[in-house]
C-alpha cells in the first residue's frame, strides 16, 4: 500500500477537547474515521498524533492527501 485510502472527499467536522491527545488516521483504513484504530499496522503509514490548545470544531482531512495533516487544506477539491 503506497497511497492512503480516500475515506471521503470532504473534511470531517469534529469537536475536539483542549489538551487531549488525538490520533488522526493517515492510512484511511480505520473504521473509526477520522481517528486511528490501529488498522495501519500492516502498512508503512503512521497516525498523526496531535492536540489543540482550546476546545473547538476542527475540520480533519478525509481524503488523506492534505499537506497539513491532520487538518483539511482543500486538497480534496483537486481529486
How many structural domains can be distinguished in the coordinates?
1
From the alpha-carbon coordinates, what is the Rg to the nearest angstrom?
12 Å
Ends: how far apart? 19 Å
Structural class: mainly beta
Described by strand count, sense and barrel closure, the largest sheet is: 2 strands, antiparallel
Number of helices: 0
The ordered string of helix (H) and strand (E) elements is EEEE
Strand content: 15-25%
Helicity level, as a percent range?
under 10%
Trace the largest sheet across and list its strands: 1-4
Unreliable stretches covering 5 or more consecutive residues: none
According to DSSP, the number of beta strands is 4
Global geometry: globular
Estimate the mean pLDDT confidence. 97
Description:
- The mean pLDDT is 97.
- The protein is built from no helices and four strands.
- It has one domain.
- The chain has 79 residues and is mainly β.
A few lines on this structure:
With 79 residues, this protein is an all-beta fold.
Protein traits:
0% helix, two-stranded antiparallel sheet, globular, mainly beta
Helix-strand blueprint:
Layout: E1 12-16, E2 22-24, E3 48-50, E4 56-60
Antiparallel strand pairs: 1-4, 2-3
Amino acid at each position: 500500500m503506497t497511497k492512503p485510502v480516500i475515506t471521503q472527499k470532504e473534511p470531517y467536522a469534529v469537536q475536539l477537547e483542549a489538551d487531549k491527545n488525538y490520533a488522526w488516521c493517515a492510512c484511511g483504513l480505520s473504521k473509526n474515521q477520522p481517528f486511528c484504530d490501529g488498522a495501519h499496522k500492516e502498512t508503512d503509514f503512521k497516525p498523526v498524533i496531535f492536540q489543540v490548545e482550546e476546545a473547538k470544531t476542527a475540520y480533519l482531512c478525509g481524503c488523506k492527501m492534505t499537506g497539513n495533516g491532520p487538518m483539511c487544506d482543500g486538497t480534496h477539491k483537486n481529486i
